[in-house]
Design brief:
heterodimer, A: 305 residues, two-stranded antiparallel sheet, 10 helices, B: alpha/beta, six-stranded mixed β-sheet, four-stranded antiparallel β-sheet, 12 helices, 10 strands, globular
Chain lengths: 305, 294
């Protein structure tokens, strides 16, 4: 195979030829490179355009006082979504407080205690099914067992009817499988030799989980929790059925509450410009809040490592 | 693990050539006066391994292992990969309990007269008495100080003075104190491989065990770090009974008093290390240590 360019640095006088030649597999490789780039760009188009639209239309109309004012009446200028922002924070907080302990303990049972028993396989299977549950079903479920039973009381505390508590529980159902599966994955990634070292020093299983396995898995678990929080913060369907919506500040956890997602849903379909613009601003704030929570939790987790 | 061996297949599987030298490399046993040699074989028994059969599920990994381990001596387990030496070592502090489907089929292991597989035995108490150092150094992702006191903290020790004292004593005991005394509260993961392994030894002796099991403790270390750990083993046997699994026969020769040779789940020979390496009584032992198989 004579190369026309004999002064090419890849060919030696002794006859060793390491120069590039147009071969079928090289052409195929180049073509695949181009294809991968194009597909990546195609995947980015919807993501970037959604972000662009929310920022352009949401940030433009945003005023700081929207964060603490109540929603305006139809056709009235001004106002804000303070009650919805507070409502979303409360709903997600209830969801997190309920789902994180249950989810993390379930994952600990699955990886550290069950040793592949039948019940563990069943739990894992259920968690996987639950993670694909249409979110509206979580709302309907809570609607059926809590909201419909208006007279349901826990002591003197009414827990039936539309309430922030019911909304938070619906979100917890959606967050639970994400947290179980992410925590299980995180725990499985902790090397076996760390557990053995702990047990060989006379630790029991609980001590090993508390002192070694959980701390080592902490930042990965946190990522899973953030994923669940981000999903819950944006959920609309289960909230409409459970926390409902109000134009007023929330007074207690067994009252209905506004939320960002439902406010966006309600205001985006009305013929009043002020409300439509407010829905865009609320979308923008929701994205910023989820992003900020995410970044903060990672900073905290990395610093304490 | 190929446990279905019979004596006849075992003989066939070992190539042998009668003209080769028995000893292929120099061996320097820890000490070699004849009176000490005799003392070694008659030192009091601390672990009595009595006709032990061990199974991974249906496959038999150990066949009727039967020998005593003597107090305050270093006993080395040698043999080719899969011969059962690590399995036997991990029986001695019941680390095999962590693997599903493993069981002792027959026989017993007694430590100072207590059958450690008796249902009334508390495995946690056992593991406090029988420390372990693993093949891969495995410090916790914590500070050097917290690594050493881990075992004591588990036992609920909170007295700061006692913890400090234990850290210094253990790190001195593991010949690491001078290197780390100024950075006890920095992460253990910043230490070199050899220092990490000595930290693991310090962590094991902090809970004051009577026996220390070492599963190929130097296989991931460079020669200089290996020498340090071997010197340490030599010091530790003043206070502890040590059982070491090694693939490195020079190491067995250098730091053990007694050597046990295993092949295909069976104990082939056990004797004073000097005798095993110069004049083994079994043909298989001779073939293995002279490097003709394994």
């Amino acid at each position: 195979m004579d190369t026309p360019n004999q002064t090419n640095g890849a060919v030696s006088p002794q006859g060793l030829d390491l120069s590039r030649k147009p071969r079928a597999r090289l052409i195929f490789s180049r073509a695949m490179d181009v294809l991968v780039w194009m597909v990546t760009l195609a995947a980015l188009i919807p993501l970037v355009s959604v972000l662009y639209m929310v920022i352009r239309r949401g940030a433009g109309n945003f005023h700081w006082n929207m964060l603490w004012l109540l929603p305006p009446a139809a056709g009235v200028d001004g106002g804000g979504f303070g009650n919805a922002l507070l409502g979303t924070i409360i709903l997600v907080a209830i969801g997190t407080l309920v789902s994180v302990p249950i989810g993390v303990l379930t994952a600990i049972f699955l990886t550290e205690y069950s040793q592949g028993s039948k019940s563990a396989q069943l739990i894992r299977f259920c968690a996987k099914i639950l993670s694909g549950l249409p979110s509206i079903l979580a709302g309907v479920f809570i609607f059926g067992i809590l909201v419909m039973n208006r007279d349901l009381h826990l002591g003197s505390w009414q827990i039936g009817g539309y309430s922030a508590m019911a909304g938070g529980l619906a979100l917890a159902i959606l967050m639970l499988p994400i947290i179980i599966l992410a925590t299980e994955e995180a725990l499985l990634r902790v090397p076996r030799f760390l557990r053995e070292a702990s047990l060989a020093l006379g630790a029991n299983r609980t001590q090993t989980v508390l002192h070694i396995t959980l701390p080592a898995a902490r930042s990965t678990i946190l990522t899973g929790v953030m994923l669940a929080v981000a999903r819950a913060a944006g959920e609309t369907a289960p909230i409409i059925f459970t926390a409902f919506f109000t134009s007023f500040w929330i007074g207690s956890l067994n009252e209905p509450t506004a939320s960002m997602a439902v406010l966006i849903y309600n205001f985006s379909s009305v013929p009043y410009d002020n409300m439509v613009n407010m829905a865009w601003s609320a979308s923008f704030v929701l994205i910023v809040v989820v992003l900020a929570t995410n970044i903060t939790s990672h900073l905290v987790s990395n610093r304490s490592k | 693990m190929s446990p279905q061996s019979t004596p006849s297949t075992m003989d066939e599987s070992i190539p042998s050539s009668p003209t080769a030298q028995a000893v292929a490399f120099p061996v320097a046993p820890a000490s070699s006066s004849s009176s000490e040699k005799a003392a070694r074989l008659t030192a009091p028994t601390i672990i009595d391994i009595n006709n032990v059969d061990f199974y991974y599920g249906a496959s038999k990994a150990l066949h009727g292992i039967n020998f005593p381990i003597r107090e305050k001596l270093v006993t080395a387990f040698i043999g080719p990969s899969g011969c059962g030496k690590s399995t036997l070592l991990r029986c001695l502090n019941r680390m095999n309990d962590l693997i599903d489907g493993t069981r002792i089929g027959a026989g017993s292991i007694k430590i100072s007269g207590v059958d450690i597989y008796h249902p009334n035995v508390d495995v946690i108490e056992l593991r406090k008495r029988v420390g372990m150092v693993f093949q891969k150094s495995n410090p916790f992702p914590k500070s050097i100080y917290e690594n050493v006191v881990y075992g004591l903290r588990l036992q609920g020790v909170k007295d700061k003075a006692r913890l400090d004292e234990t850290v210094e004593r253990s790190l001195r005991g593991a010949a690491l104190w001078e290197e780390v005394r100024d950075r006890l509260h920095t992460s253990a993961l910043g230490l070199s491989g050899g220092q990490q392994q000595r930290l693991c030894i310090a962590r094991a002796i902090a809970v004051e065990p009577e026996i220390i099991l070492m599963d190929e403790p130097c296989s991931a270390l460079d020669p200089i770090a290996t020498v340090k750990v071997e010197e340490l083993i030599h010091q530790l046997k003043q206070d502890y009974t040590i059982v070491i699994v090694t693939h490195n026969m020079q190491q067995a020769g250098r730091c053990s008093d007694i050597t046990a040779f295993f092949y295909m789940g069976k104990l082939i020979e056990i004797d004073a290390t000097g005798k095993i390496f110069t004049n083994p009584s079994q043909k298989q032992t001779e073939d293995y240590i002279s490097g003709r198989f394994g």
